[in-house]
């Protein structure tokens, strides 16, 4: 039986990652917009299919096919980084152009990558999920559920490489072929980064991802 919790969120789930047991749920199968927690699925596919040293060259579509004002790290068309750097940008700074570029690296184009994301989610048991992009910027056909996201999080946390990225609270991308400047990234999840919020920081939180769009509201995945 679920503990009597008063959860403000529209939907929520608490799952034991080892057993898959559901300890608490609220509207767990309600389809909602995920925003940037989508990027956990993007990371999973990249880690399963590509190598950290694989080189990414930023395309025009990857750079410009994101909403103005949405999160990015200022990558330019023709700029080259490796997948390891792109994944740090994705998971620490929630960089949307990096998400696009990772999708193109994996499947050639963003549309095919989105289909790959949806297919992989279904393999994990996600029955109420459809992805149309790798970043989670709003699309009415881009949705998932609390339960399905728990399944995705449960899978990605089993990847040692993902765990390694999550252990780094800050990260630097050195100068590239397009800039002389170092890009400084830091983990945005407040429970994971004491420099961001010393009062909310918790030692036992090992991974997670935040998200926000106007349509989705705030979204959150946390593993402890």
Secondary structure layout:
Layout: E1 12-15, E2 22-26, H1 39-49, E3 55-57, H2 60-64, E4 80-82, H3 83-92, H4 96-107, H5 110-123, H6 146-156, H7 160-167, E5 170-173, E6 183-186, E7 207-213, E8 217-223
Antiparallel strand pairs: 1-2, 3-4, 5-6, 7-8
Helix pairs in contact: 1-3, 1-4, 1-6, 3-4, 4-5
Structural overview:
By secondary structure, this protein is an alpha+beta fold. About 30% of the residues lie in helices and about 15% in strands. The strands form four sheets. The chain has a two-stranded antiparallel ribbon. The longest helix has 14 residues. It is globular, with a radius of gyration of 17 Å.
List keywords for this structure.
7 helices; globular; alpha+beta; 224 residues; 17% strand; two-stranded antiparallel ribbon
Low-confidence stretches: none
Q: Report strand %.
A: 15-25%
Radius of gyration: 17 Å
Rough outline? globular
Report the major sheet: 2 strands, antiparallel
- The helix/strand order is EEHEHEHHHHHEEEE
Ends apart, CA distance between termini = 21 Å
- Count of discrete alpha- or pi-helical segments spanning 4 or more residues: 7
The helicity comes to: 25-40%
Mean pLDDT reading: 96
Helix/strand-derived class? Answer: alpha+beta
Largest sheet, spatial ordering of strands? 1-2
Beta-strand segment tally: 8
């Amino acid at each position: 039986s679920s503990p009597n919790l008063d959860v403000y969120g529209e939907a929520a789930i608490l799952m034991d990652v080892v057993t898959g047991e559901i300890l608490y749920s609220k509207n767990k199968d309600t389809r909602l917009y995920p925003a940037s927690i989508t990027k956990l699925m993007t990371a999973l596919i990249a880690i399963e299919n590509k190598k950290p040293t694989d080189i990414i060259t930023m395309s025009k579509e990857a750079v410009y096919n994101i909403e103005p004002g949405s999160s990015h790290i200022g990558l330019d068309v023709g700029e080259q980084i490796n997948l390891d750097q792109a994944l740090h940008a994705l998971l620490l700074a929630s960089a949307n152009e990096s998400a696009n570029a990772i999708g193109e690296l994996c499947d050639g184009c963003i549309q095919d990558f989105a289909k790959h994301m949806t297919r992989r989610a279904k393999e994990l048991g996600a029955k109420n999920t459809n992805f149309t992009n790798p970043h989670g910027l709003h699309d009415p056909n881009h949705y998932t559920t609390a339960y399905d996201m728990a399944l995705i999080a449960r899978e990605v946390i089993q990847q040692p490489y993902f765990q390694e990225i999550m252990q780094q609270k800050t990260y630097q991308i050195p100068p590239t072929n397009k800039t002389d400047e170092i890009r400084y990234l830091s983990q945005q999840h407040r429970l994971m980064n004491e420099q961001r919020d010393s009062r909310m920081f918790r030692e036992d939180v090992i991974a997670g991802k935040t998200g926000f769009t106007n349509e989705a509201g705030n979204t959150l995945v946390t593993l402890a």
